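> example.struct
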């Protein structure tokens, strides 16, 4: 693939996309951007408020528009995408054209530990029967096909943040 013009990290919420993205960007001297933060800054409200006030469909349209903008104009960015951004095939294809698209993977039990008590995650509010792990497993199962379609994967469970950043750079350098 050579050195793509962007490195784009995707995966379920809590996999470390923002942490790893910032680390990778610092290591190679590129800018870092988190798509949820870009949308929040442009709308002047949190993603949870966009979901509540405008609906998920409006938020997903903002994501599609941002994908197109990234592909057309962004260069030398490490980008952390929102957990659902790559669920649409068109978004995956657009992002894969825009740079090296890498999915960070982590088992549901570890995600549940990381995400327990997070109140800013609309999709995790009120898990059925109060079982966060089972809820995450169900969401992962529903998203499995979309995540599998991403060209590159890094299993992060046994790696430190630095180790994950090294793995990302190794994929990008190939």
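> example.seq
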């Amino acid at each position: 693939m050579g050195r793509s013009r962007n490195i784009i990290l995707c995966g379920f919420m809590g996999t470390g996309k923002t942490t790893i993205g910032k680390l990778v960007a610092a290591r190679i001297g590129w800018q870092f951007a988190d798509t949820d933060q870009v949308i929040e800054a442009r709308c002047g409200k949190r993603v949870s408020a966009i979901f509540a006030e405008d609906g998920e469909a409006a938020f997903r349209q903002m994501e599609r528009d941002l994908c197109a903008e990234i592909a057309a104009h962004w260069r030398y960015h490490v980008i952390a995408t929102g957990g659902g951004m790559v669920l649409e095939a068109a978004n995956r294809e657009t992002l894969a054209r825009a740079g090296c698209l890498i999915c960070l993977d982590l088992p549901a039990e570890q995600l549940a530990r990381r995400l327990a008590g997070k109140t800013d995650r609309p999709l995790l509010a009120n898990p059925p029967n109060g079982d966060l792990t089972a809820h995450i497993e169900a969401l992962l199962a529903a998203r499995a096909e979309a995540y599998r379609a991403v060209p590159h994967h890094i299993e992060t469970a046994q790696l430190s943040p630095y180790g994950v950043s090294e793995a990302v750079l190794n994929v990008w350098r190939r």
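> remarks
The helical segments are 17-28, 35-43, 47-54, 56-73, 89-98, 108-115, 132-148, 161-173.
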